[in-house]
Amino acid sequence: MKCQACDNQATVHVTNIVSGQKKVVHLCQECAEKKELIKQQELNLSAILQTVIGQHIGQLTDELSRLTCPVCGIKYMEFKAEGRLGCPQDYEVFQSALEPLLMRIHRSQRHIGKSPRYSAQHKVVQAELMELRRQLRVAVENEGYEEAAQLRDLIRRKEASG
Amino acid sequence: MNLDNLTQNNGEWLRGTGPEADIVISSRIRLARNLSTFPFTNRASAHQKAEVEQLMRDKFAKLDASPKLDYIQVPTLSALDRQFLVERQLISRELANAEGPRGVALVPSETVSVMVNEEDHLRLQVMRSGFALDEAWQDIDRLDDLLEQKINYAFSEEFGYLTACPTNVGTGMRASVMLHLPALVLTKQIEKVFRALQKINLAVRGLYGEGSRASGDFYQISNQVTLGKSETTILNEIREVIPQIIVYERTARKTLTSESRQALHDRVSRAYGTLCSATMMTSEETMDLLSSVRLGVNLGLLEEITIPAVNELFIHTQPAHLQKIIGSALDGEERNSARARYLRTRLREMGPHLN
Asked: What DSSP assignment string belongs to A17-34?
């Protein structure tokens, strides 16, 4: 279909209903921008992502809104609002919600390709370290310096052995 | 590293050499990586960000890379220097404008840089002049292996390299090729190319990435999908499509020179004339005019001006570069006048070359 204002292909279709009368306008990107029907096209990735996330959480909302990552404390609803996850463990915690989302973005939900060639720390150790770091932060915030010092040493030992 | 020394040269991506360098400006690969035991940057406390930054600074110091990476703490840089690194594509706008501990490790040739505490803990980047994705991949793969021996990446068998944004998860790889496509723009065929690329899931962006408009007729073509395809597959998909775009651009150039040679010659001459004589010049107008000049040089309509020289003008007339070359901070109006003066001087040095 051609743009009503020029000969380019129409990509913007606007339907207006004015006093019960339906009017349809077909324009190309450029003419639509000129007429200020749409904003200058900028790739707003997080807005797109949020739309996609929104479409996927529909029926899961109740269950999901209660879901919180025990490691970093992010709620699924916060991820939905911000479009960014809180920590690596979220991929596991929110797995059931993320898989359809990944399918939509990448048309796949399984990694193919490079993997770390050297010692990858065991998942359990990773989660443990993350939890210790969280405790350390709390200890520092509460000025429990003795506990913080112990936690710090423990983290160092675990990191060295992992 | 003294940033002022960098103004002396063009940086890798505008070197103007490499395969198909008249159309392909540069090839770039980025890898997103995260440390396994820290929350992602957006969720990290100031203390944790400082810890990640400190940890990475130490690792870079001990890294057995050749050439060695110099580490710069971004908060110690002035706003001008941060903008300067953005213009050279060594750091992202996000990293420049963020707050808190963050940094960039880079090699003097500017082919390699690693951002710390961007959206992901690490963003590795390798850049090559011209169409050279394979070389870029070999370099970044090696750097990635080196770093991986020192730190534990967040990785899962199912989802690959774990990233703050699910759009990057999997390979964490974003490969892009920057093209100069003035003839496709002039012949109004560029939209057609975009539509074709979108169909095969490749993204098209302007010079400075997300959301930036394509000033100077520069376009970056990159992969959108990072999960479910291996690095090799993704690179092949881009590698296969670029030669086709090059052929389109060359055909469009041929059509222009055969069917509207006068109009094209006029356009190039006017662009050159304006650059040689204007007294106020915005960065945007400069980009557009230089684009015509660059096309003119490639088609033999302007002699003695070389592509590396035009490339240099593109980068030197960017706001932060201009101010560093002039040696003082300038506001918008002063900058436009200084830019016009700089262009007049430089083009005069090259002499009159209208064919």
From this structure: EETTEEEEEEE-HHHHHH
What distance separates the 2 farthest-apart alpha carbons in chain A? 75
Residues 6 or more apart in contact with residue B162 via CB below 8 angstroms: A88, A91, B34, B154, B155, B156, B169
Residues 6+ apart with CB under 8 A from B205: A43, B176, B211, B212, B214, B219, B220, B222
- ipTM of the complex model: 0.86
Identify all chain B residues contacting A97, using CB atoms and an 8 Å cutoff: none
A44 contact residues in B (CB cutoff 8 A): 211
State how far Cα A152 lies from the chain centre: 31
Measured between alpha carbons, how far is residue A117 from residues A160, B142, B149, B298 in Å?
A: 19, 11, 8, 45
Cβ-defined contact of B34 to A140 (cutoff 8 Å): no
With beta carbons less than 8 A apart as the criterion, state whether B286 and B276 touch: no
In sign, the C-alpha dihedral spanning B316, B183, B192, B222 is negative
Are B38 and B51 in contact by the 8 Å Cβ rule? The answer is yes
**pLDDT tens series, chain A, 162 aa:** 777 777 777 777 766 666 667 777 777 777 766 665 554 444 556 666 666 666 555 555 667 777 889 888 999 989 988 999 999 999 999 998 899 999 999 999 999 999 987 755 666 777 788 888 888 888 888 888 888 888 888 887 877 665
**Both tokens of residue A110?**
């399984």
Residue B180 has pLDDT above 90, yes or no: yes
Are residues B160 and A126, on separate chains, in Cβ contact within 8 Å?
no
B42 contact residues in A (CB cutoff 8 A): 82, 84, 86
- Closest-CA residue in chain A for B153? A120
- Poorest-confidence range of A77-91, B4-18, B313-327? B4-18
Phi and psi torsions of B299, nearest 5°: -100, 5
* Residue A94 DSSP label: T
Mean pLDDT, rounded, of chain B: 91
> What are phi and psi for residue B187, nearest 5 degrees?
-90, 10
- Which residue out of B94, B227, B233 would a mutagenesis test of the A interface target, given it has the greatest number of A Cβ atoms within 10 Å? B227
CA distance A135 to A151: 8
Q: Which amino acid is at B136?
A: A
Alpha carbon distance B110, B294 (integer Å): 23
Task: Give dist(CA A147, CA A140) in Å, integer.
Answer: 9
pLDDT tens profile B183-212: 999 999 998 998 899 888 899 987 766 555
Of A72, A106, A113, the CB nearest to B39: A72
Q: Which amino acid is present at B167?
A: T
**What pTM was estimated for this model as a whole?**
0.81
Question: Which residues of chain A lie closer than 8 angstroms to B229, CB-CB?
Answer: 108, 112-113
